[in-house]
Design a protein that fits this description.
alpha+beta; three-stranded antiparallel beta sheet; 10 strands; 46% helix; 9% strand
């Protein structure tokens, strides 16, 4: 394979992102730490990915939405949790954790079931549907906005703003009209909450009213934290649902196995998370001179840490690592899809819950679900951090 770049895989080259398997395999085999751009190193092996995500002192999360070595991310007015290091990160994660505690998330299941049913109630067996737009995009936006406590009549315009911002990541531009609209709206909502007595009903209330012993957040901090939760929890979960259904339907025997044995539902979701990581990579900045797999890195260098390549690493997962398998043994390795270490995604259980409820209801309502005749998977245009089909056409 002839490569126009100095590395097998460039994470922000759309041509590489569209069909990454062969390039990532070559990177793991021959160039596990490559340099696709000046000052940027790409990490392909599971062992290196896990090691970097574990060592937050050497590999900082500050400014981790810029893929140019030595540059700064957009000058945000407050630090979101994904771009924070301890001790600030420790305090903020502890504050947010109470909303993502297991009991809190279990309590969300009736609302999630109601949201999924509200979408599927409009569908009829035998009709055609497009999974990403008609289902997967709808569920996480409604769930996250309900979880935050945002008014239902505003959900569609909120998602249009969030979509525009998601589409240019890892670049983050504060001069975008959508950034101003979304953060301005959140500021208004939080100001109204702060002016009213605390109800403890949702995340926005918790951001506006600190718990006992917590220092109050500034209005700007509260806006940026709620903004981060929206970006982190919508398109990634929509991609999980789309990827999951694609793998179950592209080989219809998998769907038939789930119809016969619902105990396979959790395994189907976990294997989808491994096989098709919605978020392809995360970024870190080197703070001390180190070597990674024999490659020297220096302070200021940026690391593009490939979650997807780690999940396809044959050394971690065996020779069938590139395959989707409902029979994959547990305990082979650690799936990197939700990160690892102190930045492991707080919302992972909520994403799994949504995928489970969607899958259970589809199995119950549409047992004959199948891909539309002639369907061919195509990558979405423009997305360089998210992995999913551009669309998923089915017959119910």
């Amino acid at each position: 394979m002839a490569h126009p770049h100095p590395a097998p895989y460039d994470p922000i080259d759309p041509a590489h992102h569209a069909d990454p398997a062969a390039r990532l395999a070559e990177a793991r085999d021959h160039c596990p730490v490559s340099q696709p751009r000046p000052g940027v190193h790409f990490l392909a092996r599971h062992e290196d990915v896990r090691g970097v995500l574990t060592d937050h002192e050497t590999y900082s999360s500050v400014d981790n939405f810029s893929l140019e070595g030595g540059t700064r991310t957009a000058d945000l007015p407050a630090i979101p949790i994904t771009m924070a290091d301890p001790p600030y990160h420790t305090a903020l994660r502890g504050r947010l954790r109470r909303w993502f505690a297991p009991a809190k998330l279990r309590a969300q299941e009736p609302r999630v079931r109601e949201i999924v049913a509200g979408v599927l109630d409009t569908w009829q067996p035998g009709q055609k549907a497009e999974i990403y737009t008609d289902l997967a995009r709808q569920i996480p936006t409604r769930v996250v906005y309900a979880f935050l406590g945002l008014p239902e009549q505003d959900w569609e315009r909120l998602h249009q703003w969030a979509d525009a911002i998601d589409d240019i990541l890892p670049e983050l531009r504060t001069d975008m009209p959508e950034f101003g609209a979304l953060t301005g709206y959140l500021g208004e909502q939080l100001a109204a909450r702060a002016a009213a007595p605390s109800t403890g009903a949702d995340v926005l209330d918790g951001l506006a009213h600190p718990a006992d012993g917590e220092p109050p957040l500034t209005p700007v901090e509260a806006v940026i934290h709620s903004f981060q939760l929206i970006l982190a929890g919508t398109d990634t979960t929509a991609s999980l649902i789309t990827n999951l259904l694609h793998e179950l339907l592209v080989d219809h025997t998998r769907w038939e196995r789930l119809l016969a044995d619902r105990s396979l539902v959790p395994a189907a979701i976990e294997e989808s998370l491994r096989h098709d990581a919605p978020l392809q990579y995360v970024l870190r900045t080197v703070t001390q001179e180190r070597e990674i797999s024999g490659c020297p890195v220096k302070p200021g260098d940026r690391l593009a840490v490939s979650l997807q390549s780690a999940n396809w690493d044959e050394q971690a997962w065996g020779t069938d690592a590139a395959d989707y398998s409902l029979d994959r043994p547990t305990g082979q390795a650690t799936t990197m899809t939700f990160g690892y270490g102190i930045h492991t995604c707080l919302g992972a259980p909520l994403a799994r819950l949504q995928a489970r409820v969607v899958l259970e209801q589809l199995l119950d309502r549409f047992p004959n679900l199948r891909l539309a005749p002639g369907y061919q998977r195509e990558p979405p245009e423009g997305l360089v951090m998210i992995r999913r089909p551009a669309r998923l056409d089915v017959v119910l």
